[in-house]
Amino acid sequence: MRNISLTLLLLSTLLSADITRGQAVYKSNCAMCHTIDGRSGLGPDFNMVSYTRTNAQIAHYAKDPYAMYRSFGYDANAMPTLPLTDQEIEDVADYIGSLVKFKKWMIKKEK
Ligand code: HEC
User: Would you say the CB of residue 49 lies under 6 angstroms from ligand 1?
Assistant: First the structure.
């Protein structure tokens, strides 16, 4: 029993560390084009994206937008391919995926 709690504690620490690192990646590489609070930027708001895409899809797009834009329904690709490591891409995708829980609160506030 104690082992299970320890594993869970360790796991949640690891996961939140990813999201914290992902938030830092977001702030320095994505925030100039993507909002997280429902406003509009050059790219779509990430709170919406966290609803409509899986973390894996988000990671694919961040890694190679040019290869992905057609399958995501865009006619053109304005997002640059950013010089990020695979780890940074995983972290930022986890961060964006985690935003979903704030959406309901956001909608309530808008009304
Ligand atoms: C220079 C502006 C710019 C920056 C910086 C940028 N994006 Fe984008 N992004 C866009 C635009 C514009 C689109 C719309 C499609 C396109 O033009 O490729 C987009 C689309 C996306 C999509 C697809 C959304 C969907 O579901 O349709 C994802 C995912 C995404 N960006 C992730 C990221 C991540 C992660 C970062 C940071 C690591 C980032 N973007 C940085 C401009 C940007």
Answer: yes
